[in-house]
Amino acid sequence: MATPAQQPPQTSGGKRKGKAQYVQAKRARHCDAGGPRQLEPGLQGILITCNMNERKCVEEAYSLLSEYGDDMYGPEKFTEKDQQPSGSEEEDDVEAALKKEVGDIKASTEMRLRRFQSVESGANNVVFIRTLGIEPEKLVHHILQDIYKTKKKKTRVILRMLPISGTCKAFLEDMKKYAETFLEPWFKAPNKGTFQIVYKSRNNSHMNREEVIKELAGIVGSLNSENKVDLTNPQYTVVVEIIKAVCCLSVVKDYMLFRKYNLQEVVKSAKDLSQLNPKQTVQARNGKEAKLESGDKSNQSDPAEGKNNQQVVPENSEEVGQTETKSEIQLVNEGGAKPELASQVTEESKSNENDLS
Questions:
Q1: Helix (H, G, I), strand (E, B) or coil at 194
Q2: Which long-range CB contacts under 8 A does 291-297 form with residues at least 24 apart?
Q3: What is the pTM of this model?
């Protein structure tokens, strides 16, 4: 009788322990190569948004990235070192044998670090794919460019795919220090270009949107006074994605042309461009462009994109972008006034405030 009385606590304890082991095993599977388990400073990768199906999103991401990654960088090779037999000549020397074993373990771990590896992003409906040995911005641009040209829909649950070239702590001082070096390849003299800043924050309450944009715009202006703000058709878009205590940064091209790097909308906009007369688009800028361009209902039907109609025409037409917002650009650059420059960039950033992705 004593034995049955002692069994229930052991059984319940065993269940709890088993559940904990299951959770640990599940987390280990997400990063089975010994790399980071979650998004953290110092990583490069691709931030992907989806619609309520993260598992399917990861599968689609692996398939799509592997297809284009192999095309750009060649197939992965990560098994050769694992198959090398241990040397028998050093078996007598214990010290050398231990060093050999440690070296084999390190080599095995390095080879198992895949080119693309999913890690915990820290936000719902957001997947982060860590990358190794590739340039995320070039790969993602290549993917969007191909989809834009071929008009072939290759994903079902993936919405936006943003390259992340660098990450740092999501505190203003850390971001300023990191951005001063990070932004140099694009904006430091003699390099220059038109730009906008796009800001998005998830699960973070201590960062101020306007303050971040003002500081980053000031840094871009200090790198080269000829850098100009263009909210319609900029050469570069500085993407700022904050998730919890991590700030993700990237500088991308063709952000408006590729519909804010939305894989679903790139296909639609490409079809619409083949039927749309650019002259009609220019004439529609005084408030009618929303009705003209939203015939595909792209921004209305996509729950992950904001409903700001001001961005519709620039995304669909490069010609329109060259004729717009000259007055805004002049206001920004007269006398190099950084506060005005930052305020102009803030206008575009607010369009993404309601972006559910």
A1: strand
A2: 296/268, 296/269, 296/271, 296/272
A3: 0.64
